[in-house]
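debug: dumping io for the single-chain case to check the tokenizer round-trip. Nothing else runs in this session.
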Amino acid sequence: MNLDLGTTLIGTISAVICAAPFVLVTRSVKKKEKAMLRSLNDFADQDNCKIHEHEYVGDFIIGMDTTKNVVFFYRKEKDSSEKLSVDLKDVKNCHVSKIGKSVRHNGKVEQTIERIELVFTTSPTASRDVVFELFNTQNNLQLNGELQTAEKWAQKVNTIV
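debug: decoded output
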């Protein structure tokens, strides 16, 4: 009986020790996402908008007021933040821009992505195109869903405009 109790105790402690890092990381990510969403909502409030849809990826969050058709972007880096918004009534179309270079490696040419941008092409009456930079190799070492996020939001915006 003591052997079974000891084995159970050791197994339980081992399971807790193994699971603890995953729980702590998940909590940390959720906490950061809530803080980013709060910042995005504060930014949207300045334009009398509400965030109805949003997506959080690493160091940025993108959201949309679906009633007023305004897209908001917020990026938080170590020592700075970037806030951008675009009213979709001024947008002709939206596309994903992948900026990279070709590298020859072992006789094969490989494409590397250095930046991913979500580009909102505006009408001639608007001041200029709006660009949300989702990924840059200077800030991040590897892609973490930024390309899929860009494609998803470009498609979502293009169905509205």
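debug: round-trip ok. The chain has two helices and seven strands.
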